[in-house]
């Protein structure tokens, strides 16, 4: 019974987090037009 209660509490917390993020909306601002380089470019 405790496991069921713990699962219900966790599910409710996750659902509340999703609703909060949805209500706030996307962050303001723009993305950078330049790509992020994650490795050193290869030399030709």
From TrEMBL:
<protein>
    <submittedName>
        <fullName>SPW_0924 family protein</fullName>
    </submittedName>
</protein>
<dbReference type="InterPro" id="IPR048001">
    <property type="entry name" value="SPW_0924-like"/>
</dbReference>
């Amino acid at each position: 019974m405790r496991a069921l209660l713990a699962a219900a509490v966790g599910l409710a917390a996750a659902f509340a987090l999703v609703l909060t993020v949805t209500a706030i909306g996307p962050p303001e601002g723009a993305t950078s037009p330049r790509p992020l380089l994650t490795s050193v470019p290869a030399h030709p």
